[in-house]
Write a structure and sequence with these properties.
With about 300 residues, the protein is an all-alpha fold. It has 15 helices and no strands.
């Protein structure tokens, strides 16, 4: 039947357009205050994108950087307007130059990927540094990714670890739905587990993976399952390995079907050597975890 696969590296995230509405708070409860930006946000929440466009243009005419990011989001996602990365970049740049961290992160993403602007990892680094210096966890993780992978800068694991730690250890100051923290915690764990830039330390890896796993970060859940399966940094425990593989299988999004299938396969490998009582225990723990984390785990 084969053994459980090795631990996984993380998938690059960043503040791509599909995340922008979430990071901005768009689509959440309608705002209390009234004004052009707030009216646009309320319209966006209702799905009235043409109205959001009108309100945000009015606010942007008054140099409102949040409205400029809203307009960039509409163009990046093609909501109420034709999809246009160049126009999105123009609005993100205006807000970024006014110092808004989220706009700086998104503009950096566009430079890194060459969307709407010429591809330039060096320019991406410049904008990520500006946002990271203001405490944006998303920017700090993206900057760490660049140093880890040597994109736009010389590869430097120590610098990557510095920025991952900055993101992992801060409070939820920017409303970034814990995205930066889980990403950072996962990558610190991965560096500890693989000895990249630090001495290999499975116990530390397990601790960081657990922090991210409890935020429904599926890669961390899978890797925690691997550590329990192998008894690396934790006491060998098939119940815990099965639990975390099961949770990973449930928390991976549909777009990550290969990783989800891998988690299911790994869960079944562990299950084949477990007793009925152990399986019942693992399934109970999984139900309890999902109930306690219903706001994070997919339904």
């Amino acid at each position: 039947m084969g053994g459980v696969p090795a631990i996984l590296d993380g998938v690059r995230r960043g503040a791509g357009p599909a995340l922008l509405a979430l990071l901005l708070g768009l689509g959440s409860a309608a705002p209390v205050a009234a004004g052009p930006y707030e009216n646009g946000e309320a319209a966006f929440t209702r799905g009235s994108y043409a109205a959001a466009l009108r309100w945000w243009r009015q606010a942007a005419a008054e140099s409102d950087p949040e409205a400029e990011v809203g307009l960039g989001t509409l163009y990046a996602l093609g909501l109420g307007v034709p999809h246009d990365d160049a126009e999105a970049a123009r609005w993100f740049r205006q807000a970024a130059e006014r110092g808004l961290p989220l706009a700086q992160v998104r503009l950096a993403d566009l430079y890194r990927d060459g969307q709407g602007v010429p591809k330039s990892p060096a320019d991406a680094i410049v904008w990520l540094r500006k946002a990271a210096a203001q405490g944006s966890a998303v920017a700090q993780v993206s900057l760490a990714d660049m140093y880890r992978d040597g994109i736009g800068v010389a590869q430097n694991y120590a610098e990557a670890l510095h920025w991952y730690r900055q993101a992992a250890e801060q409070d939820d100051a920017w409303g970034e739905v814990n995205l930066g923290f889980a990403d950072a915690q996962f990558h610190i764990g991965f560096m500890d587990a693989t000895g990249r830039g630090v001495p290999q330390d499975y116990e530390a890896a397990a601790a960081w993976y657990r922090k991210a796993a409890d935020q429904a970060f599926a890669d961390a859940q899978f890797n925690l399952g691997v550590l329990y399966y192998n008894g690396q940094g934790v006491r060998q425990d098939d119940v815990s390995a099965h639990l975390w593989f099961q949770l990973a299988a449930q928390c991976y999004p549909a777009a990550a079907s290969t990783r989800r299938d891998n988690a299911v396969k790994s869960r079944d490998i562990v299950a084949a050597r477990m007793t009925p009582a152990q399986l019942a225990r693992s399934r109970l723990l999984a139900r309890q975890w999902l109930a306690a984390h219903a706001d994070l785990a997919p339904q």
